[in-house]
């Protein structure tokens, strides 16, 4: 009977393949480190060259990155809503007001383009006509526009009306004594908080 463990300690011979001549050299941390340093220096010089010869990168760094970095450090105690109000203006404050005064399930009738265009440009409310922009701030609430054909199914389900520049009171099912210029109200008096 032959011993099956006879060749246990002998070295196994690997069969030759057609790619055996492309042998990768043994890994050395010195070679690895050197190779990475060379590649790093190459990319550093490349980006330095691009930065020095492109005015766009200089503008981006000097005006956008540094000013934002400075603003972040000066106002690190501000919450996200305060930072949005500084960056986006009154529209962020108004949309935040809507979020605070409506339930998450609210379907909100937004103002028409003509109403928004009649507002003073300093208030920066032109994006109030952009459904994607408003949806970003109001989610999970649903903004609904008369002009948008995909919103026609939701017009009958509207629960709140966004009052902008004193316009929108005509869509309410009740009379309001004190008309405010910017607010959000439930469409029916029973829904009022």
Can you describe what's shown?
The chain is 40% helix and 7% strand. The protein is an alpha/beta fold and 193 residues long. Helix 1 crosses helix 2 and helix 3 packs across helix 4. The chain starts with 28 loop residues before the first helix and ends in a 7-residue tail after the last strand.
Given helix and strand content, the structural type is: alpha/beta
Integer-rounded radius of gyration = 32 Å
Q: Which regions are unreliable across 5 or more consecutive residues at pLDDT < 50?
A: none
DSSP helix fraction: 40-55%
Rough outline:
elongated
- Total E-strand runs: 4
Count of DSSP helices? 6
Q: Spatial order of the strands in the main sheet?
A: 2-1-3-4
| Beta-strand proportion | 5-15%
Q: Could you spell the SSE succession in H and E letters?
A: HHHHEHHEEE
Characterize the biggest β-sheet.
Answer: 4 strands, mixed
Summarize this structure briefly.
It contains six helices and four strands, in the order H-H-H-H-E-H-H-E-E-E.
């Amino acid at each position: 009977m032959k011993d099956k463990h006879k060749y246990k300690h002998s070295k196994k011979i690997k069969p030759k393949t057609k790619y055996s001549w492309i042998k990768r050299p043994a890994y050395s941390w010195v070679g690895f480190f050197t190779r990475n340093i060379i590649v790093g220096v190459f990319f550093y010089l490349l980006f330095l060259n691009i930065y020095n010869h492109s005015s766009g990168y200089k503008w981006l760094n000097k005006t956008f990155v540094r000013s934002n970095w400075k603003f972040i450090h000066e106002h690190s105690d501000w919450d996200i809503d305060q930072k949005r109000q500084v960056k986006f203006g009154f529209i962020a404050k108004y949309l935040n007001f809507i979020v605070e005064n409506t339930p998450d399930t609210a379907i909100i009738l937004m103002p028409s383009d003509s109403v928004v265009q009649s507002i003073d440009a300093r208030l920066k409310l032109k994006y109030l006509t952009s459904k994607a922009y408003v949806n970003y701030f109001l989610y999970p609430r649903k903004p609904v526009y008369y002009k948008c054909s995909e919103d026609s199914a939701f017009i009958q389900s509207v629960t709140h009306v966004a009052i902008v520049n004193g316009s929108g009171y005509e869509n309410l099912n009740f009379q309001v004594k004190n008309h405010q210029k910017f607010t959000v109200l439930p469409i029916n008096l029973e829904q009022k908080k």
